[in-house]
Amino acid sequence: MTSAIVAEGISKTFGDVEALKSLELDIPEGSFFVLLGPSGAGKTTTLRVLAGLEKPDTGRVLLNGIDATKATPAERDLAMVFQSYALYPKQTAAQNITSPLRARKLPKSEVDAQLKRVSELLHIEELLNRYPAQMSGGQMQRIALGRALVRDPRAFLMDEPLTNLDLKLRVEMRTELTRIHRSLGRTFLYVTNDQVEAMSMADKVAVLREGTVQQVGAPTEIYDGPANRWVATFMGSPRMNMLDCTANGRLEGEGWSLPNPGFGVSGDHRAVFGVRSEDLSLEVRDEATALEGTVYAVEPLGDRTLVDVEVGGQRIVIKAPPTATYKVGEPVRAAVDMERVHLFDAESEQAITRR
Ligand SMILES: Nc1ncnc2c1ncn2[C@@H]1O[C@H](COP(=O)(O)OP(=O)(O)OP(=O)(O)O)[C@@H](O)[C@H]1O
């Protein structure tokens, strides 16, 4: 697949903050690529460097294979949607949306046609005559998206464009954005700290932490095969359960012991055993692959119940059916789906692969 945008060894320092540390990214043409990471990871800085709004200290930016490190933002032809909507206060929503087209002196009929197209896409027809001061944050965010979508740029760069929407609208807009992406066939580079957004929209995700890429892959590849302990706990809610252990022929922790399903370790290896709450069940069929513990807390969530269980002084969370009734202090056993467990080196925190 050809690359739309490549970041090659990009570093960027602000004073004594190393925002990006030799960052590498390869964004395939036409993909919905999500840059995912916690606050301060360097996501916005990455977008700004790619867009030409920030000059990197080292490294290169390639656009469709051509070095664009020194190109101006306009020459790069990337449409950016900012977290702060940056709308013109004295223009109506319609004028804000069409400003890039009017700047290019397109005929009115074409401007109107484009306005109609994106208003329908974003369901903002009823907002077109309003000024920014007359709109909610979520409405302004959609107008800002509209202003990017009237253009036909090389790629769209979006910096957390859904943060100001309420939950219902955010869920709706996720579906809309994936639909818009499919219909436009353009490259989307989308920044978020919300792993649910990343899981639901991305073809490909790059997980960013402290200015470096931790892992790149399809959302399910990362969810099912996290490269290290940090990625494992960042992707998924509730967080992946982690229990300290010694790995050899078996995985053994305080008060528990499981067969080693083939993790490649030699001798007694200090490790961390990871298992997601949905890969645990309180209905035990096979004694050999169960953990024993006592119920610490029960959290009914409507569609499921989270049961917090203490195992040898550490805690794990189990996703149980909504009908589950457990009492605090009650002894329970949790069946482990041994096909879906993870093991991380205690020192390096890197995933240990199976033989
Ligand atoms: N103009 C600047 N001057 C000084 N420090 C900056 C500047 N821009 C970013 N930083 C620092 O660089 C680091 C990365 O910031 P960046 O905004 O890229 O993170 P982010 O992942 O986008 O975070 P958020 O999700 O909170 O927007 C942070 O430590 C931030 O404080």
UniProtKB/TrEMBL annotation:
Boundaries of every ABC transporter domain copy: 5-235
Gene3D superfamilies, per the entry: Nucleic acid-binding proteins (2.40.50.140), P-loop containing nucleotide triphosphate hydrolases (3.40.50.300)
Keywords, ordered alphabetically: ATP-binding, Cell membrane, Membrane, Nucleotide-binding, Translocase, Transport
InterPro entries assigned to the protein according to its UniProt record, in alphabetical order: AAA+_ATPase, ABC_transporter-like_ATP-bd, ABC_transporter-like_CS, ABC_transpr_MalK-like, ABC_transpr_MalK/UgpC-like, Mo/tungstate-bd_C_term_dom, NA-bd_OB-fold, P-loop_NTPase
Database matches in CDD domains: ABC_MalK_N
KW Lyase (keyword) present: no
PROSITE patterns registered for this protein in UniProt: ABC_TRANSPORTER_1, ABC_TRANSPORTER_2
Pfam families documented for this protein: ABC_tran (PF00005), TOBE_2 (PF08402)
GO MF assignments: ATP binding
PANTHER family the record matches: MALTODEXTRIN IMPORT ATP-BINDING PROTEIN MSMX (PTHR43875), TREHALOSE IMPORT ATP-BINDING PROTEIN SUGC (PTHR43875:SF15)
Protein name as annotated: ABC transporter ATP-binding protein
Lineage, opening ranks: Bacteria, Bacillati, Actinomycetota, Thermoleophilia, Solirubrobacterales
